[in-house]
Amino acid sequence: MSSPVMQRVNDFVIKLANVNGTGSASANGLLSKTIFRMGVPISAKNFFPSNIQGLPTWYEVRISKDGYQSRSGRVDVMVAMNAETYADDVAEVSPGGFLLYDASWPLDKQLLRDDVTFLGIPLAKSCAEEFDSARVRILMKNVMYVGALVALLDLDISVVEKLLEEQFATKPKLVPLNMRAVKMGYDYAVEHFDYPLPVRVAPMKATENHIMMDGNTAAGLGCVYAGATVGAWYPITPSTSLMDAFDGFCQRFRKDPETGEKRYCVIQAEDELSAIGMVIGASWNGARAFTPTSGPGISLMSEFIGFAYFTEVPAVLFDVQRVGPSTGMPTRTQQGDVMMCAYASHGDTKHVCLYPADPSECFYLAVEAFDLAEQLQTPVFVLSDLDIGMNEWRCPELQWDDGYQPNRGKLLDAAALEKIEKFYRYLDTDGDGICARSVPGVHPKGAFFTRGSGHNKYGGYTEDPDEYQEVLDRLARKFQTAAALVPEPVIRQQSGITDAVICYGSSDCAVQEALDRLQDSGIQLNYMRIRAFPFGDEVKAFLKSHQRIFVVEQNRDAQMVSLLTLETDVDREKLISLLHYGGFPIYADFIVNQVSEYLGERSSV
Amino acid sequence: MSYITKPVARHPGQRKNSLGLTARDYEGGMSTLCAGCGHDSITAALVQAFFELEVQPHRVAKLSGIGCSSKTPAYFLSASHGLNSVHGRMPSIATGANAACSDLTYVGVSGDGDSLSIGLGQFAHALRRNLNMLYIIENNGVYGLTKGQFSASADVGSKSKRGIPNQFEPIDPVLTAIALGGSFVARSFSGDKHQLVPLIKAGMAHKGFALLDVISPCVTFNDHDGSTKSYKYTRDNFAEVNKADFVPHAQEITVKYDQGSLQPVTLHDGSRVFLRKVTEEYDPTDRSSASAYIQRHQQKGEVVTGLLYMNSDAPDMHATNNTVSQALRDHEYSDLCPGPDALKALQQGYR
Fold this sequence. Notes:
The complex is a heterodimer of chains A (605) and B (351). Chain A has 605 residues and is α/β, with parallel strands linked by helices. Chain A contains 19 helices and 23 strands. Chain B has 12 helices and 13 strands. β17 (449-451) of chain A pairs parallel with β2 (81-84) of chain B.
């Protein structure tokens, strides 16, 4: 209260501390969507426990007129609804900030702070008086604080009502009930506090043609648009919602409304070993098939991944990375599977990996993954992570080119097989390491025996060293072809600048923000975001043309630096790792501070 | 797996089926298994069954895992697609393949190590899903390729070649399959082609998971005195409950049976299995009495064979999923992609 209060319009963070399983998610979603509908860019992140009911959970909404999506590191408004974490939540509020709490019970005076404004609202008490059933009281308590925030943050109450009408289109009775709770909160705030707060929202027009979507939803949608028909999976956080999304979209788009017949098949497997086996079986048989999983799942799938590599069966795997090793922290984010996916399995294996940086890229790269898997006849990994997969990001509306046709690579149909004198599955006639492929039952000439054991270029069994090595060398050639086919990096560079930053995946948003801030303080860095492995010429040229390169990653061991060092001739000394791996998403300040510190130390030497 | 290319010999007098193919056209490469291996007799029975069923070879997918049994798909139907996968994981390959294309014939060949140890989970779950396939376990109670370790189907007291008795309870694939709700459960003996061929044919006609457990003695590691999976022991303790005759849908029924012991079972495609009962008390449509009967005889050391349990009403995986009849892989892309307008409309819900 004694701190000077700064005006922060459309540039602040609101964090909501809840107990999981109390229905707070839908109230919090209502809040963030209201701001989004007012045209103001936001990003929303969940920090939640590996639990169903009763443990602390946080929802953080960053309102950023500049459109920054990473965590900001500050909290301007805290809604403290969880007594258990109350002390920590109070401590986390940035000086000059506000804390909204349930005043149904007296506040522990020891937790008060001079530099934070406490706003008490008797939420539980009011809802107990207003609503009958216990369940409704708990739910409406959440909706009531949204109502208070409508007044405090200067939100548009008609947008709230519109959203409720859309949400409860099939249960319209719930709209007035929810609006009653919104008004209760709103009226209380108007009556008791100075409103709006200096921290508030003002309408903009920056979210037109944008959506709020999480990466798993986008990836599941991408699988539908890619024409995938078989999905096999074993439930694992944080990838589960990807298959839920695919299934949901297929129910909408691929189910006959009269007969209920499905033009897709989702199989919940008994484990990940089986899930990848199903994907390989389906792809071998000519369908587009995929599996979503997380790190532990990839570990279990590894034997089969090597089989698919060597037998050259396409497969698409989504690894929504979480914290490892072992069970790690299943509900926290990391980029810890970079090395594992690149070389998964025994023997000499290398795999195509794609690194989407946000949900919209999850959509587009999902489609590309199927094309690459079929063109290259090999497993393709899409490495998302919990931050991208399970949090809603602001994305430009997804676009679809109606002229798209799946690229099935060198897949021979019956007519093509008919023309061939004799079909040999592993004969490279074009010199690009990629052979023609047939699927079962299409034509008698296409029949061959797929074996993980030694096979020669004709597809026959062999234990002959030269014949085996010939196949293995051709697979290495195919991987070189892959380097030219995979998505190229995103590069922003100016000549004359020799310092650079490299990032990939979900670190990108924090890096983008950090680059703006560094530029403001006079530090210019060129930028490259790697989107795929194997590394193409552009990646190698960028490495060559810079003297000091910061590589931003969310893992302990600098896995991308390892991969770059192994797979290019970059001088290891040039690569400076900035590593963030505690489980919460990386934020811009971290990068700004590390880069400034490094450059400061260097210039002072 | 390893095989020796077999010379093609054509005899003008060979019988042809309606596709104009001879039994030779259903053969594969030369087996590299030990001389006298029971598995080779099963391979021969498969060749005969496919020839007689008049299946187009390229419409068959042969699948296997790892082990001596899993090598055998290379020894029959060389004109078919085959996939020799990783140890114990053939059922998942079969599940995916079947999901992609429901109108091929799937035959999986596995062994007791492949299905009852490393692959017990996948075996059980393919069975639960009632995947439409013929699943043969070539059961010899022993690991051959790694030279003679007991498998999970070895009986208590059965002795290894070195004379050491097995002390663990066996996993009986037949009892396991019945307990898990298998829809077609049969057992036979590699040395009894007359029983084996009709069971293979019936299993292929069955729309669902047809398990055929075939006792198949290992001449090298498990054919000695003291083994309960030897030729001698199996022949001496073979307890047949019914003799199967398979009559395809299109074929006129000319076989004459003693009506008193005849039990016809109609399959999905209209073809029928005629079971000539050897034992009056046995009812292959009663799950609990079938299990009890098999167990009762097992306690006496008898290996019950025949079509032991069948439920032709159980829906297969695609019926449960309500998948369209056209194979998923054969749909035009335009049938699968919702298109740009649908994408635009959908995204209204994400604002």
